[in-house]
């Protein structure tokens, strides 16, 4: 239900189950995700109540699995971004990061990097991400985050190197496969690397049709950059079918006018 955007229905279904199964971490995380989606759907007056319930659930998830990275990150991001009126507490976030860093130094730097990104401090984020990589060179999350920072700053050479290191360490990390393709598309270089990466990503599939549509569109653009209109067209058509991408529609119309 969450994948379909029906967070209200998901919460109505999950909450009674959660009440009788308070040690189920996976269920706890599903509820957090549902509340996170729901908070964007309710009126301003209701946001406070949803936020407080979400924080309480995040804390319960953390109590079940205090070493889980997602549970840690959820709490840190909430305390950093939410106002104090709903429980946001920057000092609590700092204490949690300090505790994480003492036990998992690489993870601690990665948490700091993500926090810096949320505050648009990309210089600090880059420094923290690379410190995480220095400690743990095959940390795919750190490699991915460092690559995303490089990509955001149009540092395409650095970005593609980091994403390639990510998939070298974990061939099943399809987020990094996607980012290799995206980097190739945005840079106008590395076309074959991008084509290979997007083909792998698309074969694996994705539960978000719009995200998958963008992969098809970007792959089509890479094929067009190699003058391969025959392979580009089906991906443009799929991008339109999946999510009605305007960019794909425009490209298809342009191809039709040129006889491609």
Percent range for β-strand residues: under 5%
Rough outline? globular
How many strands in all?
A: 0
Query: In this structure, how is the largest beta sheet organized?
Result: none
What does this protein structure show overall?
The protein is globular, with a radius of gyration of 21 Å. Helix 6 (105-118) runs parallel beside helix 8 (140-152) and helix 7 runs antiparallel to helix 8 (140-152). Helix content is 78%, strand content 0%. It has helices at 7-19, 25-38, 44-64, 69-81, 90-103, 105-118, 122-135, 140-152, 156-169, 174-187, 191-204, 209-225, 229-243, 246-258. It has 260 residues and is an all-alpha fold. The model has no long low-confidence stretch (mean pLDDT 95).
Describe this structure in a few short sentences:
The protein has 14 helices and no strands. The longest helix is centred in the first third of the chain and has 21 residues, at 44-64. The chain is 78% helix and 0% strand.
